[in-house]
Amino acid sequence: MTAQQEAREYKICLIDDHKLFRKGMAQLIGRIPGYKVCGEAGNGRDFIEMVQAGLTPDLVLLDVQMPVMNGEETASWLRQHAPSVRVLALTMHDDEMHIIRMIRAGARGYILKDAEPEDLRTALDTVVQGDFYHTPQVSRAMANTIGLPAEEPPALTRREREFIEHACTELTYKEIADVMNCSLRTVDGYREELFEKLAVRSRVGLVVYAIRHELVQLGGQGGTRPAQDR
Amino acid sequence: MTAQQEAREYKICLIDDHKLFRKGMAQLIGRIPGYKVCGEAGNGRDFIEMVQAGLTPDLVLLDVQMPVMNGEETASWLRQHAPSVRVLALTMHDDEMHIIRMIRAGARGYILKDAEPEDLRTALDTVVQGDFYHTPQVSRAMANTIGLPAEEPPALTRREREFIEHACTELTYKEIADVMNCSLRTVDGYREELFEKLAVRSRVGLVVYAIRHELVQLGGQGGTRPAQDR
DNA sequence: CTGCATACCGGGAAAAACACCGGATTATTT
DNA sequence: AAATAATCCGGTGTTTTTCCCGGTATGCAG
Q1: How close A199 gets to chain B, by Cα (Å)?
Q2: Of chain B residues 174-193, which have a beta carbon within 7 Å of strand D?
C-alpha cells in the first residue's frame, strides 16, 4: 500500500454459517481496495475464540442467524469485550425486529444479503469510519420503534410456555386442561395472558408467534410440499 | 484458452434470491478455469424468461427456496423445456425431502451452501459432464427413500393454497372470505377439503402443517425469544 | 403488613370454527 | 356425450374459542 493518502488496510472478519457464502464474500471484499479479510468463522462462538486468541479486526460482517451463537449475542459480546470492533450486520431477514435488535446490540449498520455490491462497499466505508450505515429499511424500522416502550421480549412463566406447546397441537383447550391437570378456566387464563403479552388476537396468531420465535420446534421441518394444481 | 484439451468454457447461470450471494458465487466461479457466469436471476420465473429470450447456459446453480418460483419448479420446467441445461441444486437445507425432490425434478447434483469451494468445483466438473454429483448426504437420502411408498403429497388447487396463506393469519374465516371475494361457505369448503387432504382436524393443525411444509413462509424465522421465568 | 406476581378457579354469553346435508356453473378431458 | 375437476354457494346445528364478570391461595420482597 502506498504511504500517502491514509493508506491503511482495514481488516475484516466474516461470520456466517455458510462457508460458500463466506468465500464468495471474501472474494467480493478482496476486490474493494482498502479492505482485507483477516478471518472467518461459522458462528459467534468460534469467532470469539479467535478474538480471545489475539485477533482484532477493524470490522466484522456478522450474520444474524447462526447456530451455536447468533449475531445478536455476538454483537453484544463484542461491545462489552472489544468495543473497537465495528459490527455490520448482514442478513437475509429484513424484518424490523431483527434490525432493531442488532442495532441495540451494537451493530453500526444492517445490510441485506440481496443488496447491491455497491451498497456493501458504501456500508463498509461508512461503518469503518465509525458512522452508522442507514438504508431506508433501517430508518423506517427505527422510526417505527422510537416512542415505543423499547419492546422487551415478554417474560413467560413456566406454565405459559407449557401451554403454548400444547396450543400448537390440535388439542382443544379442554384437552389441554386435562393434559396440564388444571381446569378449562385456567388454560383460558393462560390464553388471555399470552394474547396480551404477545399481542396476538387468536390461537392461530399465538401459534405463528410461537413458531416464529422458536418457542416450539416443529421437529422435522421437511415434509414434502404438496403439488401445485393439476 | 488453448485449442487443445477440449478448451471450451462452460456457461453457468446463478439463480438465487440473494444478490450478494450471487455476486460472491460469481467471483468464486470466475476463479475456476473453464467456467464463466453468463447470467443471474433472483428467482425461477426471471430465469425462465431469460431462457425463453434465447439464453442457454450449460449449467445452472439453482437455489431451492426462492420466492415467486422455487428450485423444484424451475428444475422441472428446465427438464421439460431445455433438457440440455444441467442443474446443480445449491441450498442451505440438508434435509432429505428437499434433496429427493430436487433430484426427482431433474437436478444432477445437490450441494450445500456451507460446502468447501473445492466441493463446488468438483460438483461443477461432475455435473457439466452429465454425471451425478453425489455427496454422502445425497446417497443417504436416496437410500432412505427407496422402498418407501413414495407418499405423494396431496395436490392442492390454487384457491386452496391461497386460502392456506390467509388461514395462517389472525383473520377469521369471514374476513378471509371477504379478502378472497367469495362467501363464507366457500372458504368453509376449502377448509373441509384441506382438513381431509392434509389429515388435520383443526385450523391450528392446518397452520402447523403449512409452516412445516413451507406452504407459507413466516418471514424472519428467528425472532427474539421471550425471556424465561423471572 | 402490604403489595405484587404466580397459579388457580367458576359461570355466562357472543363469536368463531367445525360438521354435515344439499346444490350449482364452468372448463377440460376422454 | 360423458366424465372429471375446479370453482362456487345455502342452510342447520354442534363444539370450541374468545371475552367478559367475579373469586381464592401461595410465596416472596419491600
Answers
A1: 11
A2: 180-186, 188-189
Query: Number of Cβ pairs closer than 8 Å across A and B?
Result: 217
For A19, the closest of B17, B115, B197 (CB atoms) is B115
Q: For B75, list phi and psi in degrees, rounded to 5.
A: -65, -40
Mean pLDDT of A203-228: 73
What is the residue extent of each domain of chain B? 10-145, 158-212
Enumerate residues 6+ apart whose C-beta is below 8 A from A126: A108, A109, A132, A133
The DSSP result for B70-123, as a single string, is -HHHHHHHHHHH-TTSEEEEEES---HHHHHHHHHTT-SEEEETTS-HHHHHHH
Residue-wise pLDDT for B59-116, tens only, equals: 999 998 887 778 888 888 888 888 889 999 998 877 777 788 888 888 998 998 888 8
- For nucleotide C11, the protein residue with its alpha carbon nearest to C1' is A185
pLDDT of the residue at B221: 42
pTM of the model: 0.70
Does B158-212 match B10-145 at the fold level?
A: no
CATH level 3 topology of B10-145 = Rossmann fold (3.40.50)
Q: What average pLDDT score do residues A182-198 get? A: 89
Residues of B in contact with A212 (CB under 8 A): 218-223
The yes/no answer on whether domain A158-212 falls in CATH 3.40.50.300 is no
With CB atoms and an 8 Å threshold, state whether B17 touches A72. no
Mean pLDDT of chain A: 84
CA neighbor of B202 nearest in space, from A125, A41, A170, A115: A170
Residue A58 Cα, gap to closest chain B Cα (Å):
21
Averaged pLDDT, A108-129: 90
Residues 126-185 of A, Cβ under 7 A from nucleic strand D: 172-174
Buried b (16+ CB within 10 A) or exposed e, B27-57: bbbeeeebbebbbbbbbbbbbbebbeeebeb
Distance between CA atoms of residues B41 and B50, nearest Å? 9
